[in-house]
Amino acid sequence: MKKILKGGCVVNACGSRYADVLIDGEKVVRVAEDIVCENADVIDVRGKLLFPGFIDAHTHFDLDVSNTTTADDFYTGGRAALRGGTTMVIDFACPNKGESLQYGLELWHKKASGKTACDYSFHMTIDDWSEENIAQLPRMFEQGVSSFKMYMTYPAMMIGDEAIFRALQKMRELGGIAGVHCENAGVIDALIAQKKEAGEFSPAAHPQCRPSILEAEAVGRLLKIAQVADVPVVIVHLTCEDALREVQAARARGQKVYVETCPHYLLLDDSRYSRPNFEGAKYVCAPPLRKKSDNARLWDALAQGEIQTVATDHCSFTLKQKDAGREDFTKIPGGMPGVETRGVLLYSYGVAENKLSAEKMVDLLSTAPAKLYGAFPRKGQIAEGADADIVVYDPSVNGVISAETQAANVDYNPFEGFGTVGEIAQVYLRGVLAVDHGAVLHDRDGVFIPRGKCAL
Ligand code: DUC
Ligand code: ZN
């Protein structure tokens, strides 16, 4: 069945224009003024902005971590994503140390298949640099997995500098791209031990053990390793000005570096950790929230093109799960929900406040992640031949973020009370109306999207 979205403003990263969008089945087949087509349903979207479906390239659904499992699995997380305009997530398949990459990939397929509302794809976590895993790397590409993740911290997942270097060399050989969580594990461990010796066990101690300079140290070290390996790399969830300086230095040396940040590093600051009644636990994540000056620097870096993508690091835990760390902040499971609110926050605090153009927002949320992770041109644009993943955004309706109205399986929202400009009126997933004014109409129709090589 054909559809025409009529009279909206189509916003792509490369420009905006008033145009009709003709959809045939799963695909956009034409974007032009005054399209006439017999036998097509005509949907009036005058006054609305049409964005390409957002891509969240950093989620953790159904992840076993810190002796618990994330509150959102692919069913609840997928619904939350779609409701927030995210038509595709790239989640981190994460085999445990000792398990193979192939085992991890099959496990993640089982977690997601038939129960995810949005389309999905997987990055593969390399937390064990074993002969078996090295041999399996080419098979990952054959199965549509072209991006990888490594951790410089977290004992359960981190690998050392030698393994990172060897893995980056393999990325160069095979044409893959790796994203790296950059923090200095050793010094963080020492700072945690010292806090505990001093009897400091509350969430307020969390950011003090993970200062921004230790993120910057790890970013700088990674970028020098990547320089020797001679390969581009992605810094995931970069939080602060100190770390951006390391990126600038690497770029000045001629390196290609991609940077991702998240809404919580743009809009929340470390004063949240000192809130009474253990409220600080809601915001425990790694790296932690930073200073207001870092928030401002990141907004500037988005506008200047120093940061390429905004993802969420959605890793949700209920307050009951967070309570595991009431007597010891290191036992608070780290992470926050965010997959449902990224689009509306970027529009409200970026576009509506004139910090970003709408086109830039589309680039950060959709086009750049699609290119970076090899899903473009199928995803990341409203154009002939692309999947008809479309967010119909009504800029005239204001709202307030509240846990009470969210779909995510969590009993709090880190952005509770934040005012919003505009709302997501409808979301189309591959041509099908999947969300209408917050109601998720199809919640298991997402499919796996195999990806090719980085094209950014
Ligand atoms: N940071 C978190 O806070 N949680 C999940 C993984 C990560 O990098
Ligand atoms: Zn993460």
Short description:
The protein has 456 residues and is an alpha/beta fold.
In helices, the fraction of residues equals: 25-40%
For the secondary structure, the number of strands is 19
Number of H- or I-type helical stretches? 13
Look at the structure and name the CATH superfamily of the largest domain: Metal-dependent hydrolases
**What's the N-to-C terminus distance?**
34 Å
Can you describe what's shown?
This protein is of the alpha/beta class. It folds into two domains: 2-51 and 383-440, Urease, subunit C, domain 1 (Roll), CATH 2.30.40.10; 54-372, Metal-dependent hydrolases (TIM Barrel), CATH 3.20.20.140. The chain is built from 13 helices and 19 strands. Strands 1, 2, 3, 4, 5, 16, 17, 18 and 19 form a nine-stranded mixed β-sheet that branches. Helix 4 links the parallel strand 11 and strand 12. Helix 4 packs across helix 7 (212-229) and helix 7 packs parallel to helix 8. The longest helix is centred in the middle third of the chain and has 18 residues, at 212-229. The two termini are 34 Å apart. Bound molecules: dihydropyrimidine-2,4(1H,3H)-dione (DUC) and zinc ion. Residues 60, 181, 285-286, 313, 315, 334-335 line the site of dihydropyrimidine-2,4(1H,3H)-dione (DUC). Dihydropyrimidine-2,4(1H,3H)-dione (DUC) is lined by residues 60, 181, 285-286, 313, 315, 334-335.
